Amino acid sequence: MHWNAKDMDTYLQQKEYIDTLLVPLVRLETDPTKMKSSASSTEFLMHLSTFIETQFKGRMMVMPPFTYTQSTNLTDMAATLSKDVALTPFKHVFYVTTDSEWTTTDIEKEVIWLPAIPLESMDKSLRQSVIEDQLKQILPLLTKKWANG
After folding, report:
1. I need a surface site. Which of 5, 13, 74, 131 has the fewest CB within 10 A?
2. pLDDT in the model for residue 107
3. How far, in Å, are 66, 103, 117, 125 from residue 71 at the CA level?
């Protein structure tokens, strides 16, 4: 489920089954020498988030991407984000990102870091295969958290 009006109606009717929130964390580089890499990382992360949502529809809600720039203080942002996300009724919260700096922050819940894979030059079937492989990497983390309650 996506964070839109239609899916939110469904969520509100079935919220006892939808216990997981996925929050994409997108670093937006404004340095012209890093903009293409940033765009490629964003493309990868959004494809992956959409694929995860499709696989776990009815169990998971995906927030719009939380976007920040290279000068953002991640410690402050992590504290604010943790506080605000804690107000949601979701039992499980996962942050997914291609920015390795999130692995050193003190953010409540689970940060899933994946290296960005450039998808722009891949054909559709190869891109799908790469995204499926990434889900296979993430799946044990999700299922472990779900199994532990």
Report:
1. 5
2. 82
3. 15, 17, 23, 36
